[in-house]
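Lecture notes, continued. The same structure-token format from the folding unit now serves as the input rather than the output. Read the line below as a description of shape only.
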């Protein structure tokens, strides 16, 4: 079965992290030599959250309508989501590079997650049946924070890794039996790395002096 993917004007973003919290971090990563941020605005955040399984389609429909009525609140939520995503991505980068087991998340990240969660009924129960308020627009942010909090607090299958393709920056859970997964996807980053190595090898063989 094909991986779930978020389609935007910037292209396809596959959900390869193995967890919604990691897929959230992967909304900003390198592709074709440049860093791309797939979260370009509040609507993109909502659309991505639906594909990631953090929002229901019905919730997304209401939030898109709410953006038109409360654009300033939506913009504030989007800015907060980007700040949380970027701080989370920094922590994951540090965790995957550490030689020792991941240390406790820094206070700034824990504070951002707690703040973004908002009221428990917002993060878990969802939107009210009647008219939306500005606070309700924060649901995609709250659900992303809930995913991060769960990832940090609960045990999960697999080992946290960062794709070895340079550059990529994608993080994922290695649930393979051998625990030797090296790339976010073999058919993209894996093939690209192998092609690069092949070109370097051919280039080296071409300049190697003939042995007499």
């Amino acid at each position: 079965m094909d991986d779930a993917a978020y389609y935007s004007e910037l292209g396809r973003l596959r959900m390869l992290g193995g967890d919604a919290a990691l897929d959230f971090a992967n909304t900003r990563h390198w592709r074709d030599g440049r860093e791309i941020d797939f979260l370009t605005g509040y609507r993109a955040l909502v659309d991505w959250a639906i594909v990631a399984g953090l929002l229901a389609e019905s919730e997304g429909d209401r939030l898109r309508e709410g953006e038109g009525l409360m654009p300033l609140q939506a913009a504030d939520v989007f800015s907060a989501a980007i700040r949380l995503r970027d701080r989370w991505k920094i922590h994951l980068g540090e965790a995957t590079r550490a030689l020792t087991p991941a240390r406790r998340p820094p206070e700034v990240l824990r504070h951002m997650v707690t703040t973004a969660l908002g009221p428990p009924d917002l993060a878990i129960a969802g939107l009210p049946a009647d008219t939306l308020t500005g606070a309700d627009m924060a649901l995609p942010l709250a659900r992303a924070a809930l995913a991060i909090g769960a990832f940090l607090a609960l045990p999960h299958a697999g080992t946290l890794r960062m794709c070895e393709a340079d550059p990529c920056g994608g993080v994922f859970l290695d649930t393979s039996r051998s625990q030797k997964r090296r790339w976010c996807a073999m058919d993209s980053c894996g093939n690209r790395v192998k092609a690069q190595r092949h070109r370097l090898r051919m280039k080296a063989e071409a300049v190697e002096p003939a042995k007499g």
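Point for the exam: DSSP finds eight helices and six strands in the chain.
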